[in-house]
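Supplementary Methods S3. Input chains for the assembly prediction are listed below.
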Amino acid sequence: MSGFDDVNYYFRKAARVMDLSPHVERMLVTPFREVKVDVSITLDNGELGTFIGYRVQHDKSRGPMKGGLRYHPTVDLDEALGLASLMTWKTAVVNLPFGGAKGGIAVDPDTLSPRELERLTRCFVQQIHDIIGPQTDIPAPDVNTNAQVMAWIMDEYSKIHGFSPAVVTGKPVDLFGSKGREEATGRGAVFALEEHLRGAGLGEVRGRTFAVQGFGNVGSWVARFLHERGGKVVAVADVRGGVANPEGLDIPRLVEHAKRTRTVAGFPGCDAITNEDLLVLGVDVLVPAALGAVITDANARDVRARIVLEAANAPTTPKADEILAQRGVTVLPDIYVNAGGVTVSYFEWAQNIQQFMWEEDRITAELQRHMREAYATLARLVRERSVSFRTAAFILAIGRVGRATVLRGV
Amino acid sequence: MTAGQIRDTIRAVLCKGLTLEQAEQITRVLVPVRVSAGAPLMREGDGATGLFVLLTGTVEVLKKAPDGSSRSIARVEAPSVLGEMSLVMERPHSATVQAVTDCEIQLLTKSQFQRLISGESVAAYKLIAAIAEVLAVRLTRLDQKVLELSAHREAVAPVEELQTFKQKLFTEWTF
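Predicted structure tokens for the full assembly:
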């Protein structure tokens, strides 16, 4: 899901349940500001490299706008707008005092040297410094951007506006970053699952079986936390292949293996499994934690898990979502499940503003509180309005953003 | 149904101005089609085949909504004609037609119709005139509908709309 229309499919579904008028719907969907800038740098070989940078700010009714910056050739205004609006709804679901934004540069970072990447980042900040800021719009890492890129952004922005660590989140822990930020999305996803298991009277993670697609920053942490809680992660796959063991994989050793070989494939003592087979494995919970659009109308009928935990963004297509719903499979939606990342980003921002560092225990406890409170409201909506968790999440978000908008005055 | 009955039905529902001989001329080039209940007769988006004369049975006209689901927009009972626009226009079927009961149908294909036109068949020209009349009536009705809709839009003032939204946010959609 990247295009604006795709994101809006679920928004409109909720809007229909809420019986929003077309004018109101249009007001909520229309972004606050779209910016497109020239990012020209001198390449290492002396040539001129010109790239296009984007920042879309969707809604600021609930607070400063928040969202990632990605460096990828497909970045454009349409993609950024879709993802920016998703951030508005996501921050509202977990009740953070933020609006939504997204942006990036249309570039393949693999073709750039580290020095070029730094120049590109600093030049981009020069171009957008007047529309971002600790109280305006706070970027974060996204596809192909990391803590180092955030450090450059903080430094460049601070040169112009004075010391401003709160202008970006996802910074290195040694430079105003937050403890627990790296594992935040995975931890939040496992909290979401625990809430659901408890709420639906299904017990706990211990003894249940899981299949996890993706072993990057999200999937590997989800697997680790599930394993710590006594869950049996029976299959894991990444882009290069997958491994399965019906008795449960030894996740700490798999993490070591993946660090060394940069893939889970070839982990000793288990069978190989393809990504396609992993998605239809007979497990209790399926965790797509990598790519979008992996559960489609082609395989949704074959998914045997009773719960899909969407740790990735948009792993389920709208058609597949309907098929899973008809089959009684519970989909815990991305907009709630992977909100742990932006929640800990909020804690990082709050620490920077306070100039005070929180210990990891506090981060974990506060994250759990946000996930728990959001789940309680979602579960009530699901029960009282007979809607899916995804529709409930959008209803909750639209309600919160709508109230902030009208209280400020339209 | 006998050839005579088919001819009479064509004169009754398709074009009243046809003489017996002209109706027969058209009847001769028709292709019989039998469709059992539940089967589709034409699908939305498929290339047009021609004009269908529904002799017996009932069909349902379905149109795809933007969300991909199909909605029934009309039920048509015999005797009647369907797909007349395809004779005068190059475009795919604008709706899906599905048999509700077993149906007996005669199809006037586009190519047969073209053949009649190139042979300067008066019957074919009369048919075009009849179709033009049907389309003109529909256009008038559509104009009326557009007028009604635009009047309705003005009736719901955005101000009230916003009031309703505000009210609902703090009552129905507070969690």
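The longest strand of chain B covers residues 70-77. Chain B has a mean pLDDT of 84.
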